[in-house]
Every structure is written in C-alpha cells, then in structure tokens.
Amino acid sequence: MRKTLIYIIAGLGLASCHTSKPAVSEINIADSTNAVVTYPDAVEYYEPSRMKYSDEVYSETIHSVQLHSSEWVFGPPVIWLNKQNQLTLSFDELANDKKDYFFSFILCDALWSPVDLPQMDYIDGFSEDPITSFQFSVNTLVNYVHYSVNFPTENMKPKKSGNYLLQVYYNDNGEKKTVMTKRFLVAENIVGITSDIKMATNIELRNYQHEVDFVINKSGVEIIDPYRNLTVILQQNGRTDNLITDLKPKLVKGDELEYNFESENVFDANNEFRHFDIKSIAYNTDRVASIQRKENLFHVNLKTDYRRPFERYMSDEDINGRLLIKNDDGKDSDLESEYVWVHFLLSYDAPLTEGSVFLQGAFTQWGFNEKYKLNYDYNLKGYADSLLLKQGYYNYQYVYLKDGEAAADASYIEGRHSEADNDYTIYVYYREPGEVFDRLIGLQTVNSGK
Question: Which of 122, 133, 189, 352 has the fewest CB atoms lying closer than 10 Å?
C-alpha cells in the first residue's frame, strides 16, 4: 500500500472540499483575474453547546483542512510520546486578509469524551500557541489565505499518551471563536500487536467480509484486569462511524491476550474507492466529463456514477479514501491551486425513503455533515451534489445512512468484495486503576491486501 501511495503522489494529487448546499451567496470580482467567494449569511462559528469532539469545520470560509505526519502526507496523525516527530496542520480560508489563529489541545478518553483534568496536567508549556505561518494565494480566481503549523512546538507539548482534540480558533473582541476541531493521537509503543487480516471465517460471509484477528503481547507493561481496564478499538480506513469498540480478550495466556473471533471483529470489505483527478483543469481526466468556466469560476462535471452491489469486483489502485492536494500546472500546489465547483451525480431510479445518501472520504472528514448529503434530483434521475474543492486527486464512496442510525452502509451502493483492500488500525488503550484518562499504549495499521 505504501508503494502504491508513493506512486500516486508522484503522478496524481488530492485536495480538500466544501459543498454547495449553502450555495454561494455572492461572488465579488476583486479585479480582472481574482474573485473571492463569500458566504455572508451562511457562516456558523463555534457555540459551546454544539462543539463536537470529532473532525469538524465550523466556518463556511474554512476549506482543505488536513492533519498528517510532517514526514509523509499520507502518514497518520500520531505523535509518539518522548520522541521528536511532529504533525502538520494546514487549511485555507477563503478571504482577502489573514486572521490571527491559535490552537490548543483537549485530552479525551478512548471513546472521545473530554477527560476531567486541567490542561496543565497533560500539556507541557502554554495552553495555546499561535499559528504564525500564512501565505496568500497566487494567480487564482478565488482568493484564499493558506495557513500551516507543525506541532508539538517548544511552547506546547502533550505529556500524556491518549486521544487529543486539536482546537483552532481566533479571538473576536475577547470571545473565542472556534473554526475547526481535528483528532490526533499521542501513543506509547509498549505492547506488541500481531495481526492477521483474512476473509471471514463464516462460510456464508467469507466472500464479502474481512476478519481482524490479533494478539496483544503485554510483556512490556503491567496491565491490571485487562477485561475491565483495557479498551481495544478497530478502525477501517479513516472511518469513525463503524468502529468496533467493545472487544474483550477471548483468551489470556501469560503475557498474550488473544482476540480471535468469528463475528465480533468483522467488517464489510466493501469495494475499491471511486476517484476523480482535478490536478489539471486544462483537460478532462478519466472520471471528468467536462470542465467549464462560468462566472469567473471553474465547474467540473464528473461522469455519472452507478450502483455497484451486483457488479463483479474490479481491481483498482485506490488510496483508501485519502486525498492529496496537487496542481500539475503550477509550481506551488498550496498557493496556486484553484478552487473549482465539482458536480456529482449518482444515478438512481427513485429516491430512498428510509435514509440518506452521503459522500464519504477524507475530504468529508469521514462524517455526515449536511454539506455532504446528496439530494435527489427528479430531472436528472439521481442523487446530486456540488462541492467547492481545491485542485487535486480524491478518493470517495457513496454510503447509505438509515434514519436514526449512526453507522452508514457502504455496501448498499458500493457492493462488498473480500478482494477489496482496506486499511485496518488496532488501538490499545489502558486506564490505570484510579485514573480518569486512557493511555494509548499501542497501535498498528495493516492493509488487508498484504
């Protein structure tokens, strides 16, 4: 998988997104070449009662939010405790002028609820740090300011392992206004994990599902009552809606904890992700039907998508839902990439009546924000949506979310095939007796195709 990702970085690209649901209220032409997209009535900033401890964007002017290893654009947002590695946060604001942004950390438990500890107990240094690196877009139709920061910094470092929420905000007359939150991890490498990703043991499901068996070796740490104090979480790709969170050891043999089940640890294998390539807007790539310039903005019409549950499996070199910002026609992808309207259409004979269809991938923050819900268009006979995206290369899939449920079904539209490759991550958390937070004492990511 890493070899595939390196190849795609060399020849492809990805970006970030925004949707047309809150349609562009106004387009101001600043001069003959530049336009700024504004949302005078659509901006919604942070309110304490609605802040979520998940990957969220709270401002309609913030786009292309990415958080990854500073060493590799596809590296997971993991800081190793007592090591020197950093993460990189980057984002754009569609604006002509810069703001003074700050960021801070909030420690959460294994299930992403905030812990009842003062920040001084888990942050070494100050409780906030400014984002000082910013640059203005160059020769683009839409004006934006590109921000980036590497952390931990000398001024602020996490000193406990566990789940952390990154909060980005600015001060408006003394009031803190949060524009985004992003999850990241601080991990210790003190338990061993041996995993085996295979077709499901259940004969009836083996062609459709993946089974994640693994063994935890705890010889490097004393774990008191693993059935009570250990939390193990399984994740498929970057998804957070279908996590498996309630696993307990099936067998304990000395220092080894075995998690070898037949139904508790399985995921639908689904299909390879769909993709589109807008690294260049000078020509149509394989999934692009047309590119037009209207009202001083580019519009990219993707080819119509169709349901795939009954189609034969077709191998495709996907990047498991990730994105990469890239402009093939410029020198600096961060500053010279255009924002373009990308139009999606999923052919469907009639609307679904008991749920909704969403786009899902890294560019949607893997969530179910209304921005990424497709509306049924009777004239087009399908589900349609339009998103304002930065030039690049994108993976995505369509998922069906039934009313009242938290986990979406990708197989309903995309199909499910055990041949499809997925990334699976095993997280091991330990809460010491009397503590209120969970240490992240080990993690491992494995690709099912290996």
Answer: 133
